[in-house]
Automatic annotation (TrEMBL):
The keyword Repeat applies. SUPFAM superfamilies: Quinoprotein alcohol dehydrogenase-like. One of its GO terms (cellular component) is transferase complex. Pfam families: WD40 (PF00400). It comes from the Eukaryota. PROSITE patterns: WD_REPEATS_2, WD_REPEATS_REGION. This is WD40 repeat-like protein.
Length: 291
């Protein structure tokens, strides 16, 4: 439909606000940008990171943004104004690959190449408890109920009780590295994306942690992001093979391909599920109509 162009580097992360009016993006140009979805205009250029922005998340109520960078720093921002709430926190000794908010917005979890997942109280932005030593972390995602935390690592997929830090499940996942995760809205399934050696999506039953059905095949390079639409019927996956693929969750069928001319690192559905927003190596966000 259109593109959002203003970043000076690859777009590594994108999120949509619950108000349906705005989008936030993070880039290799070390900035975040707050966009108006109707106008396509940049509402705020957010500066503060000293390295490439690697990941971001928006709290469920839209009042707070957390972003991370390749230098291991974490910054919190006001969800409405885009103003920074804190000075950058040196959260990890290596780059942070992933961030996510707890259901109530009181905790942010970060995962890094230093092998740790850490929990941060959003007031007063201090580390909560001991970190989880889980190996090289590519992705962390709270379940929709907030009762579980899934961690995708270079070796396996680990499931924790985030309150007690008790590990409740651990399974191999993909052949080598597990790159991306997404929970279905009802929490009964966890989807995972693999690297270039196993460029499939796999579906896991959260009651048994056994794989459900066969791997979803179609991509031929690493799957860096997975998104599920609000109706729990469609899945979008972004890959370094320069494609976003659209899947039907009920039968795991690929029903659409959005071809890019660049590697795609991030993907999200709009709040109403009618559009897909994807970004990557060409410094842009592309907006697509869901057929």
């Amino acid at each position: 439909i259109r593109t959002f162009e203003d970043h000076g580097g690859a777009v590594n992360a994108v999120a949509v606000f619950p108000d349906r009016r705005r989008m936030i993006t993070g880039s290799d140009d070390r900035t975040l940008r707050l966009w108006g979805l109707e106008t396509g205009v940049v509402l705020k250029k957010m500066e503060g990171h000293s390295r490439e922005v690697s990941a971001l998340a928006v709290s469920r109520d839209g009042q707070m943004i957390a972003s991370s960078d390749r230098g291991g720093e974490l910054i919190a921002w006001h969800g409405e104004t885009g103003e920074s709430l804190i000075q950058p926190i040196k959260a990890h000794s290596e780059g942070i690959n992933t961030v996510d908010f707890s259901l109530d917005g009181t905790v942010v979890v970060t995962g890094s190449g230093d092998g740790m997942a850490k929990f941060w109280c959003t007031k007063p932005w201090q580390m909560q408890g001991e970190p989880i030593d889980c190996g090289y972390v590519y992705c962390v995602r709270y379940s929709p109920s907030g009762e579980l935390l899934a961690i995708a690592t270079s070796r396996n997929i680990q499931i924790y009780n985030p309150g007690t830090r008790e590990r409740v499940a651990c399974f191999k996942g993909h052949t080598k590295r597990n790159w991306s995760l997404a929970w279905t809205p009802d929490g009964t399934r966890l989807l995972s994306g693999g690297d270039m050696d196993d460029a499939t999506i796999r579906e896991w039953d959260s009651s048994t942690w056994q794989q459900a059905g066969h791997p979803w095949k179609g991509h031929n390079d690493a799957i860096g992001a997975i998104a599920i639409d609000p109706t729990d019927t469609l899945v979008a996956s972004a890959s370094s093979d320069m494609q976003v693929r659209l899947w039907r969750l009920s039968d795991r069928q690929n029903i659409g391909i959005f071809k890019h001319s660049f590697s795609v690192y991030s993907v999200r559905f709009s709040v109403d599920g009618g559009h897909i927003l994807s970004g990557g190596y060409n410094n842009k966000i592309s907006e697509w109509a869901v057929p």
